[in-house]
What does this fold into?
Amino acid sequence: MPIRLIAAYFLMITGSAFAIVTVLGLLRFPDVYTRIHAGAVVLTISAVLVTMGTAIYVWDFFLSAKIILIGIFFLFSNPMATHAIARASYKREIALPKEYEIDAYSDYLGRDV
Amino acid sequence: MLQKFSAFIFLLIVWFIFAGRITVDVLIIGSAASLLVTLFFSDMLFREVHRKLPWYHYLRKLALLLLFIPVFFYEAITAALKVSKHVFEKNPSFNPGIVKVKTELTDITGLSLLANLITLTPGTLTLDYDRSESAYYIHWIDVETVEEAEMKKKIIARFERWVGVIFR
It folds into this structure.
C-alpha cells in the first residue's frame, strides 16, 4: 500500500472519530450553547480532515481542487451559522442560560436574568 | 478598475475548477457568467485600498497568511481535544459562562475575521460585538478565570497579533 493511501486513510479515520465524539457531545451536554460548542468540533475539525483525506485519496488536480474548495466553504459557512443560532436564541429568549454565574451579555442588553 | 479585474479573474479560476477541464466552451460560458457577477457584486469580494504600500508589504502579508493556516489548525485541534475530554466524563463537569473581552483592532475586515476565528475554535463562541467599547461578548464553555488580562491571553491573544499584522 503506497504511503499516500495510508495518509488519506489516517486523515479520514481521525475525522470520523471526531464526528462520533460530536454526536456523543450533542446527546450529553446540558444546554443549547454547550451543544453548539460540540457541533463546532464536527464542522471545523472533522469535515476539514475528511475533505483533506479525500483530496489526497483521489489525487487528481481538478478533483482535489474541487474538494478543497468545498472544505473552504465549510470553514466560511460554519461560524456564521453557529453565531446566528446562538445570538438569536439569546436575544429572542428562546433558551436563556438561567444558571450561569458569569453572564456579561445580559448586562449589555440591560436585562436582569 | 483593479477591483473589478481581480474579482473577474478570481471567479473565472473558480469556474474552471468546478468545470474540471480547460476548453474554449468552458471559457466562453465562464467569462459570460463571471462578467455578469462582477458587474453587480464586485464591491463585495475585494475592497479598495486607501493607503498605498510598497509591493513587498503585500508579499509579506500573503506569506504571513499562508503561515497562519497551520498555526490555526494546531490551535483548533488542541481546543477540540479539550472539548472532547468533557464528553467522556461521567457527569460533564464544566463551568460555562459569557465573558466580555476587549480588543485593539479597528479594521472592519480584521474584526469580522477575528470573530469568525474565535467561533471556529471549539470551546469559544462569539455572541456579539460592542462598537462603543470595542469588546466582544464570548460564550466560553469552561470559564477558567475572570481576570481581564488572563482571559484575553487565553481566548484571543493567540489570533489577535496575526490578524492585526495582516489587516492593518
